[in-house]
Amino acid sequence: MNIEEFRDYCLSKKYVTECFPFDETTLVFKVAEKMFALTGLEHQPTKVNLKCDPEKAIQLREAHEDVIAGFHMSKKHWNTVTIEGYISNELIIELIDHSYDLVVKGMTKKKQKELGFL
User: Could you list the residue ranges that cross the membrane (predicted)?
Assistant: First the structure.
């Protein structure tokens, strides 16, 4: 998956926005103002940080050399994934969805209801 495909998929999800809150090269994707994905546009091959359940994060790191502990993030809750590596597009989409869903589930029930997730 290339960066354009990654970006398009992230933006296709409900209530997702993109921004550069840290600098001119770190692209961040948020769902209702909560970050679920980010990438440094200057890196080649493209690597993205995605939120992940801690147990699943460990399993993914053990199973895939292109998944490592989150770079500059909480190593427990974030993975860095090389999306232009050996991981299938299907798995990348699954990981994006998982990250997005974790962030939505972390919202208050009131916020989830307001946004139509409940």
Answer: none
Tens of pLDDT, residues 55-111: 999 999 999 999 999 888 888 899 999 999 899 999 999 999 999 999 999 999 999
Q: Could you tell me the CA-to-CA distances from 21 to 11, 46, 92, 111 in Å, in that order?
A: 17, 19, 24, 23
> Where do we find the tokens 């974790």?
102
What's the pTM value of the predicted model, to 2 decimals? Answer: 0.94
Residue 97 CB partners (closer than 8 Å, separation 6+): none
d(CA 115, CA 109): 10
CATH classification of 3-107 is 2.40.50.140, yes or no? no
